[in-house]
Amino acid sequence: MARKLLLEHDDVPGIETFEVYRKLGGYRSVEKALKTMSPEQIVEEVQKSGLRGRGGAGFPTGMKWSFLAKPEGVPRYLLCNADESEPGTFKDRYLMEKIPHKLIEGMIVSSFALGANLSFIYIRGEYMWVLEILEKAIAEAYANGFLGKNILGSGYDLDLRVAPGGGAYICGEETALIESLEGKRGNPRMKPPFPAVKGLWGCPTVVNNVETIAAVVPIINDGGEEYAKIGLGKSTGTKLISASGNLVRPGVYEIEMGMTVEEFIYGDDWCRGIANGKKMKACIPGGSSVPILPAHLITKTAAGEDRLMTYESLSDGGFATGSMLGSGGFIVFDEDQCIVRNTWTFARFYAHESCGQCSPCREGTGWMEKVLNRLEHGQGNMRDIDLLAEINKKIEGNTICPLGDAAAWPVAAAIRHFREEFEWHVTNREESQTRNYGLLKAPVVG
Amino acid sequence: MVKVTIDDVQIEVEPGTTILNAARQIGGDVVPPAMCFYSKLPGTGGKCRTCLVEVAAGSEKDPRPMPKLMASCSTQVMDGMIVKNKTSERVQEGRGGVVEFLLINHPLDCPVCDQAGECNLQDLGFQHGGAKTRYEEERRTYDPIDIGNKIKLHMNRCILCYRCVHVANQLTDSRVHGVLNRGEHAEISTYIENAIENDFSGNMIDVCPVGALTDKTFRFKSRVWFLKPMDVSCECTKCSGKAVAWMFGDEIYRVTARKDKYGEVEDQDGKTGWICNDCRFEKKDPAKWSIEGPRKINRHSVISQGHYQSPRGNSQKKIN
């Protein structure tokens, strides 16, 4: 097994308690940061580490932190985005459930680096039991002097709160998250101004993913340069991957970036191949919003090189033959799965989760869902396939927030790589209701 | 002052001006259409995406083009920025897409809609819309509801511009209506059958770009182009008292605020000339108003078709 930085000791009983976590070396980074480092030095270490945002976009965290405006007399806030709602992604939940103190430790160090005295963990409403775990852990941290006034005698004060959302996917978008936290309808804001200038209650704010904040802990413990040695090129460190679908051993894995996709799917330490002796048909490497890839393009790039688990390698070939690492929601489909049905499921999700604020997303996602619904249920026409591709183009890039893109990409990619299957649904309307494409005589699943 | 070029026309504007406002200072057909932005209501804009423009050069310092089309109503100009609106094919295509999206669920009930003739969506559809719809699904429908005793809401026609929400936030003491639900099921409605009762709530009708909010004292009385708009004023303790009376003969059919060529309420005495509900709904007696004279209407507008001459005079001329 590879090195574990985030999920270290996740198998130790009682790791969710302060006592066990502390005994195994927890909260060292808080001591180191508050006693020996200045906020600027921490930001510098994070910049050196090359850590990139783990929520999906992969924006360099150190750079994001350095953009934070620091006007005099105005409070600054750090928000942790635990609104993990992307279909296929469940890594943050595992981390918070198992090792809640890792996140709290990261929050203390990051808040200190950014000069925030009040920080929030915004957690999705469906994770109520995780919220209880976190609140218990926070109470322990308060009791042991790691939160509250004058932490470890350093003179630094920090309050940490957990705020539950109402379970809307859109509130994972950082400005919608801020609106929701302010008690308003979770509509994304127009940018600029960016949250780094005007965020929560009009004050400079940084919003980071759970995994990003947890990754600050090993960066401070071992130093940014040490962290940057793990991984490959601009994809440094370790990454949590939530593997799901038709795999022998799905689950949350911590990988060192740079391993091959093939090894991850078929390796004995990892997913151990496709379940039930089937063959892989397709794979979505980064959560439902990134383009789907057929089996031959996921293990090798179009140029015939091995595809690696890095930001760069997975997006090699652009959208024509590549995809994205995204949030690490690794979904694998075996040969029995119907791509049209799956695409419709995703479209239904995005149509349901669109906030309805801007017209291309509000109308476009609903339209795509209806057309895909018809195609899947044997009511489609050939022109519908082209229509879908056109609706896609008109949503993509024209919306306020990235939800429009997230809704458009999977549909575009499914048509790009599996057009035959869509056409088969049109030419074999009745047959498509009794069996899946590629299957000869098996009952339709689901 | 910063220099900005929009469709090959250069203009100097104050720093912090948005692209749309800079284009309005140039005027003419370089002005992008706007369905949700309303310059008199801070915070509006960015939602409808009809004002998308291409930024071919970000600024003098950083002349890289912006990768996405930008909403001109909420993007500020930079010195040396080059913007393409009508000269950009990408913009025309993107805008066409937005108009198609706005129209897929919008009913084709212009013949019975009171907004016809002064509807922003009609103009937009005429300029950028397709001749046929590609939407084969069932349209989203709602029953018309009363939101307050003088305002009717036709949710079928609404394009969710949020302007009326901003009116309620900014002009009235408390907002009792807003957007419910989300995605394509989002709708404007009042808080659990609440009625909107406020002296300035009628302005929601004036800011509505489509026929979703209509004046119940005027509904189905007449097509707007059969009426004569007259600038009128009165002594009012609540508002500026400067309004437009839409007359047929000596009767006042409806009263609205005075609007400029972008459909926005004009400033009166240095303040936005919103009018109160008393002036709008109650004063239908010409004796209560002093008439200043006929209102100037753009000659391309359908409203200017039959005003200042009698229809009979016109037709006689044509025959001769």
Task: Please describe what this structure looks like.
The complex is a heterodimer of chains A (446) and B (320). With 446 residues, chain A is of the alpha/beta class. Chain A is 43% helix and 12% strand. Chain A has helices spanning 18-23, 28-36, 39-49, 61-66, 91-98, 100-114, 128-143, 174-181, 210-222, 224-229, 261-266, 295-299, 311-314, 318-321, 339-353, 359-376, 382-395, 403-427, 431-434; strands spanning 77-82, 118-123, 159-164, 205-209, 231-232, 235-236, 238-245, 251-256, 280-284, 293-294, 329-334. Chain A has a five-stranded mixed β-sheet with strand order 8-7-11-9-10. Chain A has a four-stranded parallel β-sheet with strand order 3-2-1-4, with helices on both faces. Chain A has a two-stranded antiparallel ribbon with strand order 5-6. In chain B, the strands form five sheets. In chain B, strands 2-1-5-3-4 form a five-stranded mixed β-sheet, sandwiched between helices. Chain B is 19% helix and 21% strand. The longest helix of chain B is centred in the first third of the chain and has 16 residues, at 89-104. Chain B is globular. Chain B has 320 residues and is an alpha+beta fold. The chains are: A alpha/beta (446), B alpha+beta (320). The A-B interface holds A 168, 170, 185, 190, 192, 351-360, 362-367, 370-371, 387, 393-395, 397-400 and B 45-50, 52, 67-69, 71, 74, 76, 94, 97-98, 100-102, 104-105, 134-135, 137, 159-160, 162, 178-179, 181-186.
Short synopsis of the structure:
The complex is a heterodimer of chains A (446) and B (320). Chain A is α/β, with parallel strands linked by helices.
Helix-strand layout with pairing:
The complex is a heterodimer of chains A (446) and B (320).
Chain A: H1 18-23, H2 28-36, H3 39-49, H4 61-66, E1 77-82, H5 91-98, H6 100-114, E2 118-123, H7 128-143, E3 159-164, H8 174-181, E4 205-209, H9 210-222, H10 224-229, E5 231-232, E6 235-236, E7 238-245, E8 251-256, H11 261-266, E9 280-284, E10 293-294, H12 295-299, H13 311-314, H14 318-321, E11 329-334, H15 339-353, H16 359-376, H17 382-395, H18 403-427, H19 431-434
Parallel strand pairs in A: 1-2, 1-4, 2-3, 7-11
Antiparallel strand pairs in A: 5-6, 7-8, 9-10, 9-11
Chain B: E1 2-6, E2 9-13, H1 19-26, E3 52-57, E4 70-71, E5 81-84, H2 89-104, H3 120-128, E6 145-146, E7 151-153, H4 163-171, E8 177-180, E9 187-190, H5 203-207, E10 213-215, E11 228-233, E12 242-248, E13 251-256, E14 267-268, E15 271-272, H6 277-282, E16 290-294, H7 311-319
Parallel strand pairs in B: 1-5
Antiparallel strand pairs in B: 1-2, 3-4, 3-5, 6-7, 7-10, 8-9, 11-12, 11-16, 12-13, 14-15
